Amino acid sequence: MKSVTTNSMHTPAPAQAHEADALAVSALVDGELDDALARPLLRRLAPGGPERECFREYSLIGDTLRGLDHDMPDLTNRVMAALEGEPTLLAPMRKPHRQRPALWLAAAAVAAITWGLWSAGPSPESPASLAANPNATPAMAANAPGNVMPYLAAHQDFAQAVVSPPEMRFTRVTLAGTGQ
Amino acid sequence: MLLGLAACGAQAAEPLPPAEAAAWLQRMADAPRRLAYEGVFVFQHGDAAMQSLQVANRPAVSGKDSRLTAMDGLQREVRCTQGVSTSLMTEGGQLKVERRLNNRHFPDLLPVNAGALANWYAVRLGEFSRVAGLDCQQVELAPKDVFRWGYVLCAEKDTALPLKAAMINESGRLLMQYTFAEIRFGATPRSAPAPLPETPANARPVASERVGVKNLPPGFTRITAVNRKLPNKSNEVEHWVFSDGLTHISLFLEPASHPVESMRGQSKLGMINMLTRQVGPMQATILGDAPWPAVEAIAMSLEARLPAGAPR
Asked: Could you give the strand order of the β-sheet that contains B75-81, starting from the edge strand earlier in sequence?
């Protein structure tokens, strides 16, 4: 579930603002945007506005995923071709920020932080950015990296019952900054 | 996750204060070790077929003396006694006996220091329920970040023994669950199991470390680092295990015989995530019953270390 928040304390940078707008439009298309936030956004969907183009794109993608693209037979191919060109790119986890002790001394602050995490869903330390890499080879790989069953079997030492290792599906990925 | 856990316990209250949450976790962690019980529980992985297992447990000076026996399919058994866990499997008439690195199994889900889990999970009390004819209190563990799955446990009303445990992903989908079908408290006379054959330890501590981990997901520490022999592998591999006490992620390290292509693996329901990559001269395989961000974070934190005395 997406989380859309507003902050009246400062003016966001253009890139941040664009990202927030895109998130809001995505949430609107998915029917997940709160009414109070949806109304001003709908007003901004005027012809020629940047949000309108974003809304159109998200709607087309949504229709394609739901199989509602019969009137545009080429659309699926175009969307899928675009997705094919975007393999997963993995990047290192950001160094966690050191918590300031003062934050944790105040019971009220602790309560507020806990509530915030519950409300926003799990996302505080997103470990890696998944991004498009046009130079990498995409797609599902049919062949597993060697025989992985011994690893899966050994990891079953930590299973809570006696279970057989499951079947796995594999995808080739590109690791940021490693040349792999 | 919130929606998923709420669906399992419609009347879930506010998260418990940290001290109370820690106390509940610790009660549920202690119960399987201090109680004697015997029973049968059912294990289900997603929508796959169910499996029945018989469990018998007695407290012992060394912690516990337990025996887990699969009642369906292949003859498999786990025995934990005197701090040593052994796996026995009969296949094609051959008995295979192996030491396990971990001596816990359901309902012994939570670590010895379970109270610390309250740092990483919001704990809520749900509804009262009934499992195996006993009243139990639902206890929900919702992760505070993306690095662990959520759990709904049902703790027996008087003893806090977990009678049921369900693992739930971030979308609220059930990944696996364990549920007692019948349970009887108290030790009962039973015939002693056949003595175990002599099982030499198949793991020894890692001597030198050729790979380092820059930073781990919050709450995770390395709990094991051994050299061990794996089936169908001619040479020993290093097996490291990282855990927050509830989630376990394995790292296998071995010399890369050829350039390693980075591959991501995922089980059918996404419960097990895996990544294979090259780190310096080593092939690293990272996998766990953990969300992808946790596996990915550890995999991307690996770095090759120069041998001692090597020029920098």
From this structure: B94-100, B84-91, B75-81, B63-70, B50-60, B37-45, B174-185, B162-168, B150-156, B134-143, B121-131
pTM of the model: 0.69
Distance, in angstroms, between A136 CA and closest chain B CA? 12
pLDDT digits (tens, 9 = 90+) for B160-215: 999 999 999 988 899 999 999 999 998 766 656 667 666 666 777 777 788 999 99
Confidence at residue A109, expressed as pLDDT on a 0 to 100 scale: 28
Question: With contacts defined as CB-CB under 8 Å, which chain B residues touch A93?
Answer: 215, 217, 296-297, 300-301
Which residue does chain A place closest to B172, by CA atoms?
A: A1
CB of B277 within 8 A of CB of B284? yes
> CB-based contact (8 Å) between B104 and chain A?
yes
- What is the H or E stretch that residue B133 is in? none
Distance CA B40, CA B52 (A): 7
Cα distances from B210 to residues B185, B283, B302, in angstroms, run: 48, 11, 10
Interface test with A, best of B84, B88, B145 (most A CBs within 10 A): B145
Asked whether the ipTM of the predicted complex exceeds the cut of 0.95, the reply is: no
Please report, for residues B9, B25, B126, B143, the alpha-carbon distance to residue B6 in angstroms, rounded to integers and kept in the order given: 5, 19, 9, 13
A73-120 pLDDT, tens digit per residue, is: 565 566 556 555 555 666 665 555 444 333 223 323 222 222 222 222
CB B244 within 8 A of CB B288: no
